[in-house]
UniProtKB/TrEMBL annotation:
<dbReference type="GO" id="GO:0005085">
    <property type="term" value="F:guanyl-nucleotide exchange factor activity"/>
</dbReference>
<dbReference type="InterPro" id="IPR026506">
    <property type="entry name" value="GDPGP"/>
</dbReference>
<dbReference type="GO" id="GO:0005737">
    <property type="term" value="C:cytoplasm"/>
</dbReference>
<protein>
    <submittedName>
        <fullName>GDP-L-galactose phosphorylase 1</fullName>
    </submittedName>
</protein>
<dbReference type="GO" id="GO:0080048">
    <property type="term" value="F:GDP-D-glucose phosphorylase activity"/>
</dbReference>
<comment type="similarity">
    <text>Belongs to the GDPGP1 family.</text>
</comment>
<keyword id="KW-0547">Nucleotide-binding</keyword>
<keyword id="KW-0808">Transferase</keyword>
<feature type="compositionally biased region" description="Basic and acidic residues">
    <location>
        <begin position="15"/>
        <end position="25"/>
    </location>
</feature>
<keyword id="KW-0963">Cytoplasm</keyword>
<dbReference type="GO" id="GO:0006006">
    <property type="term" value="P:glucose metabolic process"/>
</dbReference>
<feature type="region of interest" description="Disordered">
    <location>
        <begin position="1"/>
        <end position="28"/>
    </location>
</feature>
<keyword id="KW-0344">Guanine-nucleotide releasing factor</keyword>
<dbReference type="GO" id="GO:0000166">
    <property type="term" value="F:nucleotide binding"/>
</dbReference>
<dbReference type="Pfam" id="PF26217">
    <property type="entry name" value="GDPGP1_N"/>
</dbReference>
<feature type="domain" description="GDPGP1-like C-terminal">
    <location>
        <begin position="218"/>
        <end position="365"/>
    </location>
</feature>
<feature type="domain" description="GDPGP1-like N-terminal">
    <location>
        <begin position="103"/>
        <end position="211"/>
    </location>
</feature>
Amino acid sequence: MMLRIKRVPTVVSNHQKDETEETARRSGGCGNNCLRSCCIPRAKLPLYAFRKPNKIDGGKDVLAIEDNEPPVAFLESFILGEWEDRMQRGLFRYDVTACETKNKFNFTKVGQEEVLFQFEASEDGEVQFYPSAPIDVENVPSVVAINVSTIEYGHVLLIPRILECLPQRIDRESFLLALYMAVEAGNPYFRLGYNSFGAFATINHLHFQAYYLDVPFPIEKAPTKKLTTLKDEVIISELLNYPVRGLVFEGGYTLQDLSYTVSDACICLQENNIPYNVLISDCGKRIFLLPQCYAEKQALGEVSPELLETQVNPAVWEISGHMVLKMRKNYDEASDENAWRLLAEVSLSDERFREVNELIFEAIANGEDSIENTANSMLKEPVEEKNTVTKSSHHTMVAGNQECVVQQ
């Protein structure tokens, strides 16, 4: 799909437009009906309380309790339905559904009307929906809000423990929450993404992005080579025949096993100042971890002027193959080769990728009782390739590789 949007500064809330503007005061608040202490005391928002799955299997969560029908359809009614409601109310900066297709801020300033719902684990193991629930400041809620600078249908933000104003750094608890959201959505076309600093995160307040796009991403169709299986049955593979080198995580006895393994890898990259992106795919069953170096190359003057002129910042969606092009010229000239050339500049070199892998596997080993293979033996295993995406009506583009979905 291709999307046409104009180039604008990063805007994540309508209340950024003019924070000095005098507005009507509401209930003694600041007038913006925001999520800060000035407006929170009397605020109420919808609350979706999810069940914690023990394991995901075949796209459905396998629970220790009886699987009852949830009170609302989480993706269709709650995320997409509420997102469309905000679109009808004019809260977005442009209409993304009408786009042409060819193939020092923090989120507490977000207005309450931009928040779709609070998202937390159910206390009694049953899915619960409360249309209007008080905001529990003591327990620090996590929320799902619209992205007013949307790039695709249903584009939202998951903001863990919003009132804590956490920096944009993954921790075990927040990453597990993102996996819970992917499982709850239960649709492989609804994905979550994360950008670290140095990998084109623009707001230093912990958040994940998510949206719905009903085509396979190119990265999801790339073959993989199994590297190792951990003691808890988490399988780690390496991407093959894709312009950006990366790791793929799946399996595990429990969802927590998978989540903790990936979050430990992310924490390792953060501690070593290595920029990275994460794609949570296939209802939380597959997670792509993609260390990158494009911003570093930019700073060193190692990116060609031709690529810089595209003004494409390769974050998680672009690396996954869903590109936003900002100029008509680039849209008209979009090709497999151009997309491949850009993404190749994002990737670590083979040597550097092996070095980073060793750091990651050492961190994972420290976080687990043991792993079946060391980092050295991991690199010597025979190639076991697989393509996990079934054939569909969507054609491929890049010869020997995967189609890039390009937007302007």
